[in-house]
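Students often ask why inverse folding is considered easier than folding. One informal answer: many sequences map to the same fold, so there is more than one right answer. In these notes we will look at a single instance of the problem. The structure comes first.
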């Protein structure tokens, strides 16, 4: 048989006997078989039926290898598959401890696959983070950006005749429609970028299983943002994943009872076919591995209410949550390190991760005020319990109040007074445990926290349920937004150790309890020995919390004369200016403010040029002395 004859064979798999008696296995030109009679997959099972990530050669090529503080790191490529006759290859970083300690299987160690978020790329730090903690770790470069530290001519991901990056046809993260870069020529889930990336990730698992240092039965997955969704999809359609930690993604689309809630702030639905084949809510139902969700209260991508509702359908017997208070799209160290502790438990057996705290609520109390009871696991190791509740239906701009707690034996109890029964009620809790386990963090998160947080389920009640239970409405309003700033319990902080760019933010002023009176000015007491500049920053109608109204980002500058004494500074609505040209309207009222920030420095647009204010940075070294943030009426 001539070589030219072999190329003409189009069967999916064929064994050919060569004259010399040996055999070779021939694959069809494409990894994915053509559609049968033009019919596209109609559900997750059909979508993945017949695909096997282990049949095609990986053709691994090591571009470069080096050692970094006891970790071997390889920059490599492997074959994803062949689509429309062209090979697609994935670039990745692979890292593992050079000297390995056995974990119950000789010297083989567990492995992790990491999937980056939108606009990002494979990360040396992520691969090394896993390796530093004893895992062989593969970080794949699905977005196709140039690899970190790549030399001229060194390869990155090449999707060939298709494109799953964010540069060719971005709509294919939500659309299944065809174009010149898709697999099929009709609307099909195989046209989704998510589908192609999961194929690449499955191939990554196959790569890990073939490595001599890896125990193929102990593989976990983690990823942030778009990588969080990918983590859930991968865990749902590939049983080789034995533990999964999605971050800020993988919550699924809003179920109907949330979507029908007035002003919920959820994303619009995609096509019906998308919601039958690609939506991560479908993959959540198929997850059997232990799974931990890492995310904040107000994340725009991993929407909290969706996650709590959809994850109840998972087949996994081990479901945990770790929710950072008040933030959007990030986690603080007390919650981030919970992910590695989860892997330590389920892939190494080296830690005992607490069970999800039990939370119950009672609307039928003697005083008609909702009551909450939290019962944590491993009570002896509990350092702190916090109960949060909110009356705001808008998920993205919701402020979570902190309830007053008292401990009774092995449980913690709280009251959740509300001002009206015309709004829903949401309740959840965080339990913080003492952290006494050796871990290694990212370079920017080296300090291991003293505690780690585990979150409860979320309890919610509709206005009708509150009214039927005859819950007492206790209207309460205060002009004091923050009396002292000792713990910033109701705030989140960014760059806090930076004496110039420190930033504290809160959604507190959106809450009816702290809303501004008509004509009020915002006043704060400060004490700073040297001359300083402080900025108030506000979001007006953030995330379209008030549909149909204008929105924008604004700042007000206050110059402060240095003094050893406390002094009051104030701003009015008229003092605020647009941060950049995207804000088209002047700020006219406090009514629709969804977030307030206090900062030491800010970047704004002035005369079309990005400008950092103040031009000469103020050194606001810690501790920053602030108190009595309040509304004052002239």
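Output (designed amino acids):
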């Amino acid at each position: 048989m001539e070589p030219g004859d072999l190329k003409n064979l189009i069967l999916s798999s064929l064994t050919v006997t060569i004259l010399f008696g040996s055999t070779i296995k021939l694959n069809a030109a494409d990894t994915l078989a053509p559609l049968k009679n033009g019919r596209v997959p109609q559900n997750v099972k059909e979508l993945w039926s017949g695909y096997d990530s282990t049949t095609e050669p990986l053709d691994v090529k090591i571009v470069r290898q080096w050692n970094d503080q006891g970790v071997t790191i390889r920059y490599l490529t492997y074959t994803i598959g062949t689509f429309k006759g062209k090979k697609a290859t994935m670039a990745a970083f692979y890292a593992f401890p050079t000297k390995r300690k056995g974990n119950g299987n000789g010297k083989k160690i567990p492995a992790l696959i990491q999937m980056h978020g939108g606009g990002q790329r494979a990360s040396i730090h992520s691969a090394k983070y896993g390796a530093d903690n004893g895992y062989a770790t593969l970080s794949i470069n699905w977005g196709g950006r140039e690899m970190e530290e790549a030399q001229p001519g060194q390869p990155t991901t090449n999707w060939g005749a298709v494109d799953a990056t964010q540069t060719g046809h971005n709509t294919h993260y939500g659309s299944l429609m065809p174009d010149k870069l898709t697999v099929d020529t009709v609307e099909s889930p195989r046209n989704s970028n998510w589908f192609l990336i999961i194929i690449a990730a499955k191939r990554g698992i196959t790569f890990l299983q073939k490595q001599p240092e890896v125990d193929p039965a102990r593989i976990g997955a983690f990823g942030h943002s778009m990588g969080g969704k990918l983590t859930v999809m991968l865990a749902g359609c590939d049983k080789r994943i034995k533990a999964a930690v999605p971050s800020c993604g993988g919550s699924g689309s809003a179920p109907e009872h949330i979507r029908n809630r007035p002003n919920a702030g959820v994303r619009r639905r995609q096509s019906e076919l998308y919601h039958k084949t690609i939506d991560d809510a479908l993959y959540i139902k198929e997850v059997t591995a232990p799974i931990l969700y890492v995310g904040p209260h107000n994340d725009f991508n991993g929407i909290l209410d969706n996650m709590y509702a959809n994850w109840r359908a998972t087949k996994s017997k081990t479901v945990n949550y770790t929710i950072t208070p008040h933030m959007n799209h990030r986690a603080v160290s007390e919650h981030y390190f919970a992910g590695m502790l989860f892997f330590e438990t389920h892939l190494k057996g080296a830690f005992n991760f607490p069970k999800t705290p039990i939370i119950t609520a009672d609307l039928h109390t003697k005083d008609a005020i909702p009551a909450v009871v939290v019962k944590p696991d491993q009570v002896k190791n509990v350092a702190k319990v916090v109960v949060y509740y909110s009356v705001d239906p808008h998920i993205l701009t919701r402020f979570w109040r902190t309830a007053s707690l008292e401990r009774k034996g092995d449980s913690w109890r709280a009251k959740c007074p509300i001002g009206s029964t015309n709004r829903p009620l949401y309740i959840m809790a965080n339990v913080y445990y003492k952290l006494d386990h050796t871990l290694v963090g990212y370079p920017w998160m080296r300090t291991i926290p003293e505690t780690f947080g585990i979150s409860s389920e979320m309890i919610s009640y509709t206005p009708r349920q509150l009214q039927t239970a005859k819950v007492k409405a206790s209207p309460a309003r205060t002009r004091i937004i923050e009396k002292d700033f000792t713990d910033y319990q109701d705030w989140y902080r960014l760059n806090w150790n930076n004496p110039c760019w420190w930033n504290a933010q809160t959604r507190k002023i959106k809450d009816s309890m702290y809303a501004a009176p008509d004509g009020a000015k915002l006043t704060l007491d400060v004490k700073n020995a040297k001359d300083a500049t402080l900025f108030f920053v506000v979001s007006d109608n953030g995330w379209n919390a008030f549909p149909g109204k204008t929105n924008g980002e604004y700042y007000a500058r206050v110059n402060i004369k240095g003094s050893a004494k406390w002094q009051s500074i104030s701003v009015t609505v008229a003092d605020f200016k647009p941060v950049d040209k995207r804000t088209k309207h002047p700020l006219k009222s406090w009514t629709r403010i969804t977030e307030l920030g206090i900062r030491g420095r800010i970047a704004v647009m002035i005369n079309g040029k990005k400008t950092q204010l103040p031009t000469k940075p103020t050194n606001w070294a810690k501790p920053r002395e602030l108190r009595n943030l309040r509304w004052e009426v002239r």
